[in-house]
Amino acid sequence: MTCGMVLASGYGSRLRGYVDIPKYFVDIFGRPLIEYVLYSMCRSGVDDLYVVVNELTRRYLVSSGLIEKYGVDVIVNPRPELENGYTLLYSLSVVDDVSVLVSVADHIYPPSILRSLVDVDGDIVIAGDPDPLYIDIGEATKIRALGERVLEVGKGLDVFSHIDMGVFHIDRDKILSITRPLFDKFEGFTISEVINWVVAGGGEVLVKSFSGFPWRDIDVPRDIEYVFNDDFRIRVSRVFGWV
């Protein structure tokens, strides 16, 4: 069995002042941003679907009606200030499924990416795009891989082979075992640091390549403006019927 996990407990600090609600609930073509991820997760065939929230995003999620619409179980992150890497490991520690599809909540991508990703075995399998069509490379998290084996991830990489799409297939038991010393520090760390820790610890971290797909992350104000680009909107409309 494979569960889906959507990470929505960050504060979206780079959009403060531009929007007055958590960015996961910003209106994109008439739907909250997070609904694109929930839709893709449900169409991927996951057995259970979790959304990880802080207290503020929990209130927005409850009032949105998305819990009932998508059959969501809610996980409240007790320490959202400790960054998304802590959020990931904490959330993995409270679910029972060994096979976990993980997505950040501020990306738009088609369900077919998740369906392909879950078929690849590894301790962590990252969805990566070698030549993204709609992404600001300067803002993106990069992946340096040799073939399919990931060597390093990070925003500041000068040499890289893929852009991280924010979607992962994770072997829960293996990752919690390898990262226990990192988790026990109880300090803030990112998902990139988790991945690099697993690589350094001898874990099997792979990249699954996806090229030519319409996908986009929402981090800064110009990202919201960009999703209304005609080419992106038309391509996304072929995937999501409400666009």
Describe this structure in words.
With 243 residues, the protein is of the alpha/beta class. The protein has one domain: Spore Coat Polysaccharide Biosynthesis Protein SpsA, Chain A (Alpha-Beta Complex), CATH 3.90.550.10. Helices cover 34% and strands 26% of the residues. It has 9 helices and 13 strands. Strands 1, 4, 5, 6, 8, 9, 10, 11 and 12 form a 9-stranded mixed beta sheet that branches. It has a two-stranded antiparallel sheet with strand order 2-3. A hairpin with a 2-residue loop joins strand 9 and strand 10. Helix 4 crosses helix 7. The two termini are 31 Å apart. The mean pLDDT is 93.
Short description:
It contains nine helices and 13 strands. By secondary structure, it is α/β, with parallel strands linked by helices.
